Amino acid sequence: MEQELAKMMKKFNNSPDFAKFELLDKLGNEQKNQNLVDFLIQVSENDKYYKIRIKAIMTVTKFEDSDIAQKLSELYAYERDRNVRLAITESLGDMSTSDTDEMLLNISKNDLNDVVRSAALRKLHERKKLKKAVMRKLILETIKNDHDVYPRQIALSIIPKYANQTVYTALKTIFDEETKFKMRSLLYKTLAEVATKLDKEIDVDEPIKPKEEPIKKRKRRKKKKDKEAEEHLFF
Known about the structure:
- By secondary structure, the chain is mainly alpha-helical.
- The protein has 13 helices and no strands.
- The radius of gyration is 25 Å and the shape is elongated.
């Protein structure tokens, strides 16, 4: 078996990229066996081209089991390419094995890329394996604490599915503390949706877009500040 795997890897590594894609497509239709799984995991980990690694990850996911989920989790831990981490996250989310939830939780909180964190959060919601109380807490923490806009947007789109009075109260607090108009607008729309689900009236005012200062006026003020700064240098 090891010799067969070595031959397969050697042939694969010496092939052009288009041939690698074709081979992975073909292997995805084969009967599952350990030799095939090991080969796909090796490609997922070692190929120099990230698109080939992603294709191998998507292919091995078709043969899902707890061992494959564990292998992909281990690959994620050392992977630097955000596109590959995203592919691993999506693949783990598509697996029916329950032991991937802890990994997805970790990704949703700690991955350095906002798109990857958002994907993990979305997959946890779609899987519906975590208790609602756990999901509520995770989503609200994302809305309140995440430093990027995209994960907060994804969390706001999901939170109405977990609506209760605690959610409404928490969103009100976040709304009151938010300073950016666009995010306040998103929070208001979500509060309105949650209020409707709870059959209650929303009790916050819709944010009003601040008037933008005319460009000429802004330029004049900037010139004045620059001039004042220059004058200050002489004293």
